[in-house]
Amino acid sequence: MSKVDVRVIRDLSASKKRVMANVVQHLEQRHTKKPSKRWQYRVLTAVISICIGLFIYMQYRDAQQQASQMAPILDEKILELSLQSDAEMNGKNRLYKTSFDSFLSIESSFAYAQSKGLVPTQEQIATKLEELKALFYEGAPTLSERLAMLQLSQEEFIESYLKPIAYKIATGELLWDVTKADYPNTSDPIRRWFVEQEAMNYLEQHYQQEIAALREKYKISEKDGQWVFTRSGMVVALKEHEFLVVSGAFPSDIAKLSVEEIVEKHTNGTWFPLVNAPKTLSIGDRVEVQHNKTIAGDGSQAFIDFKDNLGIRIVEEGK
């Protein structure tokens, strides 16, 4: 008969029960899903996104504040320098209307570019500054005469006048690159004309009172005193934003020749912005187009020039 103590056996049975209970509890805990921590990652991602957004906004705001402090919109510095040059030419303390229009063109491009969040690099500003230095150092009145009239040193003149103007011009020129997508398959001069109109409309919409005050101060008339000219010819090309008129062209030219050959044959051609035009305008129509301004081209197309469009009349519809 075994001498094993019955109490020990009883104790071992209790121990086995405790072991089994622990195993079961461990297995249950393994199958129990731990609370998900995904919400922590979502919160962290949201916080990071907000921080990035705030950083970008602060950078943009700082750039805009820097621009407004260094080169406020419709600042008269450009007009002051223009008045000096105009007075030298006309012998009077009078600003030419063309100078005022040029001032508005620079200011409108600058304001419109700023509204799109465009900021030039330091390299772009420096390039424009060097161009301005050469322009003012060689122009009339001489630099020494300007400094005497403004009572500034050369360094003060650069800091107070040339740097803000260079910043404005560099900012405005950024428009020409970012607007390419808005006017696909459009010649650069015509695209530039459209963007200039958009910029001027923006300036007049947001700074109407300020412009009126400057016109009154410098006695600039709103009326355009330029001559109005008329160009007659046949429409030989028609695009989404422009049309080409060639004087002396015939329907037979359109049927047999390419656009380039028609222009070369008649040694003329004018691209006009497609505005103020009848909806029925078609290739082969004989038209009369009124204009008063030449749009600067790049000179790469022989016999081609670019003009604005004040109005168009169809004289004879193409067949």
Structural write-up:
This protein has 319 residues and is of the alpha+beta class. 58% of the residues lie in helices and 12% in strands. The chain is built from 11 helices and 7 strands. The protein has a 7-stranded mixed sheet. Helix 4 crosses helix 7, helix 4 (97-115) packs across helix 8 (188-206) and helix 5 packs across helix 7.
What is the H-and-E element order?
Answer: HHHHHHHHHEEHHEEEEE
How many distinct helices?
11
Radius of gyration, in Å, reads 36 Å
Spatial arrangement of strands, main beta sheet: 5-6-3-2-1-4-7
Q: Which percent range fits the helix content?
A: 55-70%
Average residue-wise pLDDT: 85
Instruction: Tell me the fraction of residues in β-strands, as a range.
Output: 5-15%
User: How can the largest sheet be summarized?
Assistant: 7 strands, mixed
Terminal Cα separation, in Å? 130 Å
Shape: flat
Given helix and strand content, the structural type is alpha+beta
State the assembly state of the protein chains.
single chain
Number of strands: 7
Low-confidence stretches: 1-10, 55-65
Please give a quick description of this structure.
With 319 residues, the protein is an alpha+beta fold. The chain has helices at 6-31, 38-70, 77-90, 97-115, 122-138, 143-150, 154-178, 188-206, 208-217, 251-256, 259-266; strands spanning 229-238, 242-246, 269-273, 286-291, 294-295, 304-307, 311-316.
Strand-helix topology:
Layout: H1 6-31, H2 38-70, H3 77-90, H4 97-115, H5 122-138, H6 143-150, H7 154-178, H8 188-206, H9 208-217, E1 229-238, E2 242-246, H10 251-256, H11 259-266, E3 269-273, E4 286-291, E5 294-295, E6 304-307, E7 311-316
Parallel strand pairs: 3-6
Antiparallel strand pairs: 1-2, 1-4, 2-3, 4-7, 5-6
Helix pairs in contact: 4-7, 4-8, 5-7
